[in-house]
């Protein structure tokens, strides 16, 4: 005899349950599966995010120990604006930085 019940045995066992009980059991099982899948997906996503964050922190620490300047979004923006200002025939510089354009 196999470990799983035969379909007719399962049908006879469920036949004693009311429709409401079968629906509640089905919904409880569905919610359990959805909750499990959500938990697994969240765990995997958080793990990947934390590993990327740790990698970037380790690279930043390595760069600091070697004497390289830190590359932040602000310094990258200032470099881009400086390159833009060096172009001939330019229009006024856009300022997406929240702190305003960099000092000249």
% residues in beta strands = under 5%
Largest sheet: none
Order of helices and strands: HHH
Broad structural category: mainly alpha
Average pLDDT, to the nearest integer? 79
Indicate the overall shape.
elongated
Count of β-strands:
0
- Intertermini distance: 84 Å
Assembly level: single chain
Helix amount, in percent? 55-70%
Radius of gyration: 30 Å
Unreliable residue stretches: none
Tally of helical segments: 3
Task: Lay out the secondary structure.
Layout: H1 7-15, H2 19-66, H3 73-85
Structural write-up:
The chain is an all-alpha fold. The protein has a domain at 15-85. It is 67% helix and 0% strand. It has 3 helices and no strands. The protein has helices at residues 7-15, 19-66, 73-85. The longest helix is centred in the middle third of the chain and has 48 residues, at 19-66. The radius of gyration is 30 Å and the shape is elongated.
């Amino acid at each position: 005899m196999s470990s799983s019940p035969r379909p007719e045995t399962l049908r006879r066992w469920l036949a004693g349950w009311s429709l409401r009980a079968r629906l509640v059991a089905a919904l409880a099982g569905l919610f359990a599966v959805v909750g499990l899948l959500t938990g697994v997906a969240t765990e995997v996503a958080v793990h990947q995010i934390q590993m990327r964050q740790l990698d970037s922190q380790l690279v930043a620490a390595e760069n600091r120990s070697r004497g390289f300047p830190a590359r932040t979004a602000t310094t990258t923006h200032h470099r881009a604006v400086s390159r833009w200002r060096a172009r001939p025939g330019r229009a006024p510089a856009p300022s997406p930085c929240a702190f305003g354009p960099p000092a000249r």
